[in-house]
């Protein structure tokens, strides 16, 4: 028991020393949503830095769970923060901690999949799963969900599949998807919306099978 307590104390000290590109400030009274809105409105990186700092310990432990290496996990925290600088501008985020957990989990899975030469699938926002950040058993389930998501994407009609892959996986904007595919903007939005709904339905069916 004493060894476990000492381990957690050491890990907490590591978190505090993470060399992340985070700019600290005194905006402690602002909510997560207020900090996020301020960053999106003003483009000031310190807002995003303050927001990320609040949840960096969670990000670290998610990474540590997958990589099993402290240094690699700390590096991943830095990379995830760098990804957020642009990623938060492209998605409507209602629950930042939950969204950040998904981003962190996907980052780790993609890194592990690169080692195995597997296809990378990003699921930051277009399929939402119920996540309880306080129940570790739910973390393991998400790998199975990602694999099921790949299967569901493969079942989409071609127009929806192409639009979903370009918009969510390759992070293209509506205009870029339209230019690449030749579909109109309204068609692109419709294909993405319908594809998103079909993916959710597919995932729901898979859960009950």
Automatic annotation (TrEMBL):
<protein>
    <submittedName>
        <fullName>Sigma-70 family RNA polymerase sigma factor</fullName>
    </submittedName>
</protein>
<dbReference type="Pfam" id="PF08281">
    <property type="entry name" value="Sigma70_r4_2"/>
</dbReference>
<dbReference type="Pfam" id="PF04542">
    <property type="entry name" value="Sigma70_r2"/>
</dbReference>
<keyword id="KW-0238">DNA-binding</keyword>
<dbReference type="InterPro" id="IPR036388">
    <property type="entry name" value="WH-like_DNA-bd_sf"/>
</dbReference>
<keyword id="KW-0804">Transcription</keyword>
<keyword id="KW-0805">Transcription regulation</keyword>
<dbReference type="GO" id="GO:0003677">
    <property type="term" value="F:DNA binding"/>
</dbReference>
<dbReference type="InterPro" id="IPR014284">
    <property type="entry name" value="RNA_pol_sigma-70_dom"/>
</dbReference>
<keyword id="KW-0731">Sigma factor</keyword>
<dbReference type="GO" id="GO:0006352">
    <property type="term" value="P:DNA-templated transcription initiation"/>
</dbReference>
<dbReference type="InterPro" id="IPR013324">
    <property type="entry name" value="RNA_pol_sigma_r3/r4-like"/>
</dbReference>
<comment type="similarity">
    <text>Belongs to the sigma-70 factor family. ECF subfamily.</text>
</comment>
<feature type="domain" description="RNA polymerase sigma-70 region 2">
    <location>
        <begin position="51"/>
        <end position="116"/>
    </location>
</feature>
<dbReference type="InterPro" id="IPR013249">
    <property type="entry name" value="RNA_pol_sigma70_r4_t2"/>
</dbReference>
<feature type="domain" description="RNA polymerase sigma factor 70 region 4 type 2">
    <location>
        <begin position="147"/>
        <end position="199"/>
    </location>
</feature>
<dbReference type="GO" id="GO:0016987">
    <property type="term" value="F:sigma factor activity"/>
</dbReference>
<dbReference type="InterPro" id="IPR007627">
    <property type="entry name" value="RNA_pol_sigma70_r2"/>
</dbReference>
<dbReference type="InterPro" id="IPR013325">
    <property type="entry name" value="RNA_pol_sigma_r2"/>
</dbReference>
<dbReference type="InterPro" id="IPR039425">
    <property type="entry name" value="RNA_pol_sigma-70-like"/>
</dbReference>
